[in-house]
Amino acid sequence: MKTFLVLANGTVLEGQHFGATGTRVGEVVFNTGMVGYEETLTDPSYYGQIITQSYPLVGNYGINGEDAESDRIWAFGYIVRELCDAPSNFRCKKTLDAYLKEQGIIGLAGVDTRSLVRLLRESGVMNGALTTEYETAEEALEDAELMERIRNYTVTKAVESVTCEKPVVHQEDGQYHVALFDFGSKYNILRSLVKRDCKVTVVPATTTAAQLKEMHLDGIMLSNGPGDPAENVEIIENLKEIAALGLPIFGICLGHQLMALAQGATTEKLKYGHRGVNQPVTDLAHGRTYITSQNHGYAVVGDSLDASVGEVSHVNANDNTVEGIRYKHMPCFTVQFHPEACGGPKDTDYLFDEFVDMMKGER
């Protein structure tokens, strides 16, 4: 079966089909991780996006179900150079092809992902479509309706699409009660809190300060998530009131961006974002650089935050973008990267310990 990637600039790549069939439009991005494809596919932060994997061989250890970061695939499509159809690993339960078929996600293999990644780096992320519904590339390009869908596509209502519907409690007997905002939260954030003796109540993205007051909390965790942070006007307004509660707050990725917006900063869209498990981040306080896992297309503009409100605590060692903020008037710190994702493999999980120390009153 012929499968095509059709990009908004008119580029078409033809390759081998795997996964589901049909047509899916999304924002085409690339991930530089050598491993972790199951975690990548199930990360809700990829909602609305078609992922290109830069590492050439994908699927070699299969899918095990234990490494998933949510209960389903959130990416809109998956592109690889070479697909392994005979995985070998003692934890393997199914192939990547079977997994995508089950989830209704289109896959494309056998294309020059190196060339595609270079295109996205030079031109910036762009819209595209994965499709199995055309016989030739010309036929796809001549479909005016398809090309209009590609050109007009934007990732909207992303957090609304991935957040939970009602609060869910984990580890009822935990010593510290934390509200984990589900903006598209990954399982390992929950695990990182639970293993530190926290009772965790996962709450919907639009939970208010008044609702949090009724929960008798020790701290608040703001999770990762997809989309343009500035789109979440209601959540940003809620966070202004939530910050005033005076509870310890720790934010990751989208949570980091939303808190910055609530405190008067601005965000900007990056040309091609940071997506992968090999992003260098410098902790300015410790004078040390860590290898981190990241997945974001937007960043906080450093000099847009009033110096009396907060200071930049971490920066990206590649492009000097903001990777962390510590606030001066409230017990709150946030980071752009994923300390729960074990990029180093455990270099930055000290941040969870700092959060617990804040709840203990030791910071």
Structural topology:
Layout lengths: L1 E6 L4 E8 L3 E9 L5 H5 L7 E5 L3 E2 L18 E3 L2 E2 L12 H8 L2 E4 L3 H11 L2 E6 L5 H5 L2 H9 L5 H5 L5 E3 L5 E7 L4 H8 L3 E7 L4 H5 L5 E4 L10 H11 L5 E4 L1 H9 L4 E17 L4 E13 L9 E7 L5 E6 L4 E4 L14 H11 L3
Parallel strand pairs: 3-4, 4-6, 5-7, 6-8, 11-12, 11-13, 13-14, 14-19
Antiparallel strand pairs: 1-2, 1-9, 2-8, 3-9, 10-12, 15-16, 15-17, 17-18, 18-19
Helix pairs in contact: 9-10
Pfam family, one: CPSase_sm_chain
Pathway: Amino-acid biosynthesis; L-arginine biosynthesis; carbamoyl phosphate from bicarbonate: step 1/1; Pyrimidine metabolism; UMP biosynthesis via de novo pathway; (S)-dihydroorotate from bicarbonate: step 1/3
Catalytic activity: hydrogencarbonate + L-glutamine + 2 ATP + H2O = carbamoyl phosphate + L-glutamate + 2 ADP + phosphate + 2 H(+); L-glutamine + H2O = L-glutamate + NH4(+)
H/E element order: EEEHEEEEHEHEHHHEEHEHEHEHEEEEEH
Give the terminus-to-terminus CA distance: 59 Å
What spatial form do the alpha-carbon principal axes imply?
globular
**Structural class determined from secondary elements:** alpha/beta
Helix content: 10-25%
User: Which residue ranges are poorly predicted, with pLDDT under 50 across at least 5 consecutive positions?
Assistant: none
* Radius of gyration over C-alpha positions, nearest whole angstrom: 20 Å
Strand order of the largest sheet: 10-12-11-13-14-19-18-17-15-16
For the largest beta-sheet, the strand count, sense and barrel status come to:
10 strands, mixed
